[in-house]
Amino acid sequence: MMSAHAVPASAARPLADPAGLVGQWVRLYEDGTVGLLLSADRTGWTLRTPTGDRTGTGRLAAEPITSESEARPVRRRLRAVMDDPAFPGAADLDLLDLQLAAHP
After folding, report:
1. SS3 of residue 45 by DSSP
2. Domain boundaries, the chain
């Protein structure tokens, strides 16, 4: 007989192929940062967040945003920067909406 039990939050999560996540909105496992993944390979990555770009070295540990509840705070921040010509807020908001529509 099998029984269900909760997996501890500290349990290792499987890592997706980082190249397969490029162009998607993702949440970093490390600290919960959410952003649009601009580039990634096994040695480093670049993420555009509503507050600026973030880079990291090593393999990316992240998962795509798939629910409205995850996207809500990001959507608010993107709307706040939509009029900033230095930041593609409107385009990023469109990408986020398309991604959420693909995960009903």
Report:
1. strand
2. 18-101
